[in-house]
Amino acid sequence: MLNLDQLLYIISVVSWIFFGIYTIVIFVRALLRQGIILAILQLLSTRVLLPLLATIVISLLSVAVVFVQPTHVAVVVSLISPGGVRPEPLRAGLHLIVPILENEVLYPIYWQTYTMSNKMSEGAKVGDDSIRARTSDGQEVRLDSSVIFRIDLEQAVTIHVDWQERYIEDFVRPVIRGYVRTQVSQFTVKEVNSSARRDLEVTLGRLLSEEFASKGIIMDQFLVRDISFTDEYAHAIEEKQVALENIEKADHEAEQIRNLAAGERDKLETEAEGLKEKAILEAEGRAQAILLEAQAQAEALKLISEALAQNPDLLT
Predict the structure, then answer these.
(1) What is the value of pTM for the model shown?
(2) 282: helix, coil or strand?
(3) All domains of the chain, ordered by start, with CATH?
(4) Are 144 and 130 in contact (CB under 8 A)?
(5) pLDDT per residue over 225-246, tens digit each?
(6) Is 206 strand, coil or helix?
(7) Residues 110 and 71 sit within 8 Å (Cβ to Cβ)
């Protein structure tokens, strides 16, 4: 659907086309009938000047009428305003500006996402656009990041004066890269890869939000999408992981051996305990047998003594 300013622009272009054709026809007819001088004078007649005036009015009106979409604001650059720009931007709706002396520059106020990634077609730039930074222990890391932001419509004039349409390339991008490098340098590579990652993301979000706000940009989120390392460090991490796995494997095997040894020890202790109990039982059995035998002998001697006492003749 065409806006009023777009419709007026089309009408203006069509008017100039028809006016050009109309003027050529009048000039050629006058030239053929009356000669070159009268043909030129014919161009200065009301037959030509009135259509010319009407076409100019339509053209000026098409320039004067500005329709601003709800997703944008318009900064008016003006030759008749102090500082060369109107102090307030034009918000969504239909507006009038002074033709020739003023023109509008549109700025988006919707949320924008700027991504820097090492993947070919994922970021704002083609190729590896990740942020390279060095940790406090000298290791290089590469961060993929995204920032979600929009222009503060109240500060659109400031954005235009300070940055014009270069605010992404000349402000957003270098500020993010600078802050990321500064913050990463405060952590070791191990911290960046583990405990400090969330702290790094939160701190960067806070610092960038403050910096953006001071320049008229509202930041919604800063995201650390991925962290990658040099091939050497990744290889070292892989070797360390393999070593840890080997240590865990050795510990597991040692534990199995300890468990096996403990099982054998328990088995031997059980067997020894069984042998001990068997020996005790055998000893008790032998002692009981000896005791019974002794008792039997004592009983026999007692009986013999009693018999002799009753019959002394048995001794002769």
Answers:
(1) 0.67
(2) helix
(3) 4-108 (no CATH), 112-229 (3.30.479.30)
(4) yes
(5) 888 887 776 666 656 655 666 6
(6) helix
(7) yes
